[in-house]
């Protein structure tokens, strides 16, 4: 099948490359380390030639050890390894440095989907007699279809017990670039990837009119449909003389910033030890930040769609699905492109070329400016004083099914940090009878989505991106507080009858430290160092200034997908640091039951005072599809905005040069 060949070719093309020895305790696992992990497990008779590995990731040293580490020090390198066993899945801790298996036992949940399982489901569904019969009813043969295995969530029914399910709808094999333009609606298989068998095939009936247009989106395909715009003079970013940043292994230094990075199979890009230079002194800001979970629930309750409630990071892996970046499109041509090394199903190192790009750019805006009208004279006009703004961008792009997600960490010369998520790719569409909103079937067809092309409806859905941000403002033990905009109490004699003031509030426990963002209740979230006196006596800190958020009318107690992802009920959470709590959706997302999530952890209601606090932020948006989304969507950017607050003595961008 075409899709099978495409995926296999892609996996082969990613290839194998040697990696350098780790130079920092939080560096990603190297190619040699993945090979050694495999060797150790085999030597200890824990694994054999048939063993598969859903996930191998760095087991970080204790935070105190990392903070005390200096270049040249030696800390044991360890990995957490999930692998297949006779009784399901096991979890082992492998000490790479010592060549030992420190622990090994059965997992409490199901790790992310293996590529092998994905391929088995694809081929198994299409080869089932009921699927073949369903295709025949629609005038299609198996070779004219490809099937797309999708995680089916967990709805706490009998079929989810002792199973590992994927639901597998199919599409017509494309004539061009668009694999999603011709869904074979009303037909899908339920496949148990653990048992390697089709449980059953669901056929809700043939849709009267199947989509006919291929809707290709390559330049050649678009030109065959529509006249391309007139050629334009190129507008490009260039950088004469090379970059201002320095990359040494996983360590990056630029302007007032320095940090380390790696790629893990589940969260993708991980940024660690983010420090800022304050007038010659390096001060810590964030110990670690990374994507924690991505939740994409669809709002169509019909048989073929209600279960589409994907946990893209925990079920599939943002690191696994990193795609090579293209110079001049994904990143400027002058960017530095770097590979990422993860493990394949056999535990062998898999190198994704050009998975990360690092670049700086003048964004065409002033970092600051001021025009002084009182300085002007007829004889001597005084131009505005200002400085150009430049930013450093670290970018990855993960293609998870029909969506492409760009993840940016953008560092500013004024001390601000922006985490950006760019959503693009293709809408998930269903085949319908309606070709126009004038058709008699249109009202029913569009009850849960938008008719975006003839015979294609894109369902309403949401996107939530939870980030785990472990602030260490100068030290691990920080305060968390809110700065609330509240009505000021005014004297009755005041000519002003309404003003606002800032009220500082400090939650004492984890349950108190959950927040929603609303323009009707403005507040900023402040993380500060209580042990250091700021330049004017303030408690120096950083704040989450704002972010893109969304809330839905969800039932977090009774709706299974929402119970499994109840962390989206609030945008901001705070917990006492726990190295085991890395992912808001829990250690195991596949068919999880909601018992191991951020929303459950906080029920311990631990005291936050004087503790190392981790802040969790969910950016999100509702997606009501539109015709302008098709056949490919414009990039929609969402952000988490982090700013210094009384941390510096003055505007850090004050010392920028004009050129």
Automatic annotation (TrEMBL):
Q: InterPro entries from the entry?
A: Cu_amine_oxidase (IPR000269), Cu_amine_oxidase_C (IPR015798), Cu_amine_oxidase_C_sf (IPR036460), Cu_amine_oxidase_N-reg (IPR016182), Cu_amine_oxidase_N2 (IPR015800), Cu_amine_oxidase_N3 (IPR015802)
Domain Copper amine oxidase catalytic intervals: 237-654
Q: Which residues form the Copper amine oxidase N3-terminal domain?
A: 111-208
Keyword tRNA-binding on entry? no
Keywords tagged on the record: Copper, Metal-binding, Oxidoreductase, Signal, TPQ
- Cofactor binding remark: Contains 1 topaquinone per subunit.
Domain named Copper amine oxidase N2-terminal: which ranges?
Answer: 24-103
The record ties this protein, via Gene3D superfamilies, to:
3.10.450.40, Copper amine oxidase, catalytic domain
- Its EC number is 1.4.3.-
| Signal sequence extent | 1-22
Record keyword Transit peptide present: no
Q: Which cofactor does it need?
A: Cu cation
What is known about its processing and modification? Topaquinone (TPQ) is generated by copper-dependent autoxidation of a specific tyrosyl residue.
Protein family per UniProt: Belongs to the copper/topaquinone oxidase family.
- The name of this protein is Amine oxidase
**Record lineage:** Bacteria, Pseudomonadati, Pseudomonadota, Alphaproteobacteria, Hyphomicrobiales
């Amino acid at each position: 099948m075409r899709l099978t060949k495409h995926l296999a070719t892609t996996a082969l093309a990613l290839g194998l490359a040697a990696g350098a020895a780790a130079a920092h305790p939080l560096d990603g696992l190297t190619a040699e380390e993945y090979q050694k992990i495999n060797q150790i497990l085999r030597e200890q008779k824990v694994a054999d030639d048939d063993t598969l590995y859903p996930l191998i990731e760095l087991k970080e040293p204790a935070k105190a050890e990392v903070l005390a580490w200096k270049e040249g020090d030696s800390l044991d390198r360890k990995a957490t390894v999930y692998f297949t066993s006779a009784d399901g899945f096991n979890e082992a801790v492998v000490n790479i440095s010592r060549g030992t298996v420190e622990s090994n036992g059965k997992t409490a949940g199901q790790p992310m989907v293996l590529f092998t399982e994905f391929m088995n489901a694809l081929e198994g569904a299409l080869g089932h007699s009921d699927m073949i019969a369903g295709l025949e009813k629609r005038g299609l043969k198996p070779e004219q279809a490809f099937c797309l295995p999708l995680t089916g969530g967990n709805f706490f029914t009998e079929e989810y017990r002792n199973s590992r399910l994927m639901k597998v709808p199919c599409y017509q094999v494309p004539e061009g670039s668009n694999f999603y333009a011709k869904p074979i609606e009303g037909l899908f298989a339920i496949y148990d990837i653990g048992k390697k068998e089709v449980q059953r095939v669901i056929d809700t009936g043939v849709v009267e009119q199947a989509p006919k247009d291929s809707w290709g989106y390559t330049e050649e395909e678009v030109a065959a449909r529509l006249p391309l715009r007139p050629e334009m003079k190129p507008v490009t970013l260039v950088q004469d003389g090379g970059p201002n940043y320095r990359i040494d292994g996983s360590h990056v230094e630029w302007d007032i910033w320095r940090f380390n990075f790696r790629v893990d199979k589940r969260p993708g890009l991980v940024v660690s030890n983010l420090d800022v230079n304050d007038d010659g002194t390096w001060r810590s800001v964030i110990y670690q930040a990374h994507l924690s979970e991505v939740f994409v629930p669809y709002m169509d309750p019909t048989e073929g769609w209600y279960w589409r409630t994907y946990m893209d990071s925990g079920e599939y892996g943002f690191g696994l699905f990193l795609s090579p970046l293209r110079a001049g499109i994904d990143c400027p041509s002058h960017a530095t492109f770097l590979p990422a090394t993860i493990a394949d199903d056999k535990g062998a190192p898999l190198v994704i070329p050009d998975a990360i790009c690092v670049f700086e750019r003048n964004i065409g805006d002033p970092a600051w400016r001021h025009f002084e009208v009182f300085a002007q004279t007829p004889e001597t006009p005084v131009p505005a004083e200002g400085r150009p703004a430049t930013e450093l961008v670290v970018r990855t792009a993960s293609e998870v099914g029909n969506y492409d997600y760009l993840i940016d960490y953008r560092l500013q010369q004024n001390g601000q940090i922006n985490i950006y998520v760019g959503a693009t790719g293709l809408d998930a569409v269903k085949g319908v009878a309606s070709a126009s909103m004038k058709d008699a079937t249109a009202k029913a067809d569009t009850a849960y989505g938008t008719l975006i092309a003839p015979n294609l409806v894109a369902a309403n859905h949401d996107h939530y991106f939870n980030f785990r941000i472990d602030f260490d403002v100068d030290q691990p033990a920080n305060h968390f507080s809110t700065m609330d905009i509240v009505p000021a109490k005014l004297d009755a004699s005041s000519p002003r009858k309404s003003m606002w003031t800032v009220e500082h509030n400090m939650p004492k426990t984890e349950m108190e430290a959950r927040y929603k963002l609303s323009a009707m209740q403005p507040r900023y979230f402040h993380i500060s160092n209580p042990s250091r006196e700021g330049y004017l006596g303030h408690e120096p800190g950083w704040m989450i200034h704002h972010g893109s958020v969304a809330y839905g009318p969800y039932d977090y107690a009774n709706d299974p997908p929402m119970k499994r992802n109840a962390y989206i009920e609030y945008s901001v959470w705070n917990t006492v640091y726990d190295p085991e709590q890395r992912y808001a959706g829990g250690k195991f997302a596949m068919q999880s039951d909601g018992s191991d999530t951020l929303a459950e952890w906080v029920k311990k209601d631990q005291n936050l005072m004087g503790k190392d606090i981790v802040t969790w932020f969910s950016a999100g948006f509702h997606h009501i599809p539109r015709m302008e989304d098709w056949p490919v969507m414009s990039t929609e950017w969402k952000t988490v905005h982090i700013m210094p607050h009384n941390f510096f003595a003055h505007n850090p961008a004050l010392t920028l040069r004009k050129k």
